[in-house]
Specification:
The chain is an alpha/beta fold. It contains nine helices and 14 strands.
Length: about 300
C-alpha cells in the first residue's frame, strides 16, 4: 500500500513537488488549492504523465481538505511569494493569516501526520504550525537547509569543477539573509573547502548562497524559486516515507540544543518514519555559536510579531 502525501498549494512549488513525488511511485498525492480547477487540472496532467514515466501513483486535485484525510505527510506551500525588494519578514503577518487556518484543517483531517513547512518566512511559519497544531516537535519541520546547502554545493562544485555529489555543505540558522553557511565544516571529497579555495573566493560564494533566493526573485521579476525548493522537499519526504534515516539540515524547534531554546532554527537532523528522530549537535567555534544564536534571535523577533498565544 502506497503512502499518502498531501500538498497544500498548487502553485509552482506545490505542483513541481507533486510531479517529483508521483514519478517516484511510492506515494499517492493530493493537491489542494482554493482556486477552482487549478489543482484538478495540474493533478490530471501529472497523472497522465505517469503512463509515460511508469508510475501508478494516484494524483488528485481538489479544493477540499476531505481528500487529504489520513495523510502520512502534509506539505504546506500556500502563501504569498516574494517580489523583488521584498524581505521575508514583510510576509510574516500576511502568510500567518494563510497558514493558521490551513494548519487547523490539516490537523482536523490528518491528526497523526507529519507537517513540512515550505512557505516563507519559513522558520517563523514552522513555529506557527507547531503552535497551532500542538503536534510534538518531531512531527513539524521546515524545508530550508536542504535548499540552502544545495545552493552552496552547486556554487562550490562549479568553482572547483567537481561533481556536486562529492560536495558536502554545512548551512545552519534561519532561512534567507539570516542563514549561516559554515565553510569550516564544508568538504569536497572529505577535504575542507577552506583548504581548496582562497578565503576571498569562499566568502564570495557564501555571500551568493545567502542571497540565492533574492537573486532568483530579481531575475524572475514575477515569482520566486521553485525547482530547487521542490527537489529539496521531495528529498525530505522520501527520507521520512522510506525511513532512510538521512542526516539533512532542516528547520527544527530547539529546546536547548546549541544553547538555543524556544526557536525554530536550521540544524542537521536525522529524518525517518517518525519525522525528526534526532537533532545532530555539531561542535561549533565560539564565533559560529554566536552567529547561530543571532540567527535564532532574528527568528524569535518574527515570532514576536505574530504575537502567538
Amino acid at each position: 500500500m502506497r503512502s499518502k502525501v498531501s500538498i497544500i498549494g498548487a502553485g509552482n512549488v506545490g505542483a513541481t513537488l507533486a510531479q517529483r513525488i508521483a514519478e517516484k511511485g511510492y506515494a499517492d498525492v493530493v493537491m489542494v488549492d482554493i482556486i477552482e480547477g487549478l489543482p484538478q487540472g495540474k493533478a490530471l496532467d501529472i497523472l497522465q504523465a505517469g503512463s509515460i514515466t511508469g508510475s501508478d501513483a494516484r494524483v488528485i486535485g481538489t479544493n477540499s481538505y476531505k481528500e487529504t484525510a489520513g495523510s502520512d505527510i502534509v506539505v504546506i506551500t500556500s502563501g504569498v511569494t516574494r517580489k523583488p525588494g521584498m524581505h521575508r519578514s514583510d510576509m510574516v503577518l500576511v502568510n500567518m493569516n494563510i497558514v493558521k487556518p490551513v494548519t487547523e484543517q490539516v490537523v482536523k483531517y490528518s491528526p497523526k501526520g507529519i507537517i513540512i513547512m515550505v512557505a516563507n518566512p519559513l522558520d517563523a511559519m514552522t513555529q506557527l504550525v507547531l503552535h497551532v497544531s500542538k503536534f510534538p516537535r518531531n512531527r513539524v519541520l521546515g524545508q530550508s537547509g536542504v535548499l540552502d546547502t544545495s545552493r552552496f554545493r552547486a556554487l562550490l562544485a562549479r568553482e572547483l569543477n567537481v561533481s556536486v555529489e562529492d560536495v558536502h555543505a554545512c548551512v545552519l540558522g534561519g532561512h534567507g539573509d539570516i542563514m549561516m553557511p559554515v565553510p569550516r565544516l564544508t568538504t569536497v571529497g572529505g577535504v575542507p573547502v577552506t583548504e581548496l579555495l582562497p578565503k576571498e573566493t569562499v566568502n564570495k560564494i557564501v555571500e551568493r548562497t545567502v542571497k540565492g533566493g533574492s537573486e532568483i526573485v530579481a531575475l524572475l521579476k514575477t515569482g520566486s524559486a521553485f525547482y530547487a525548493p521542490a527537489a529539496a522537499t521531495a528529498q525530505m519526504v522520501e527520507s521520512i516515507l522510506l525511513d532512510k534515516k538521512r542526516i539533512l539540515p532542516c528547520a527544527a524547534y530547539l529546546e536547548g540544543e546549541y544553547g538555543i531554546k524556544g526557536a525554530v532554527v536550521g540544524v542537521p537532523v536525522k529524518l525517518g518514519k517518525d519525522g525528526i528522530e534526532q537533532i545532530i549537535e555539531l561542535k561549533l567555534t565560539p564565533e559560529e555559536s554566536a552567529a547561530l544564536k543571532k540567527s535564532a534571535e532574528a527568528v524569535k523577533e518574527l515570532v514576536r510579531i505574530m504575537k502567538l498565544k
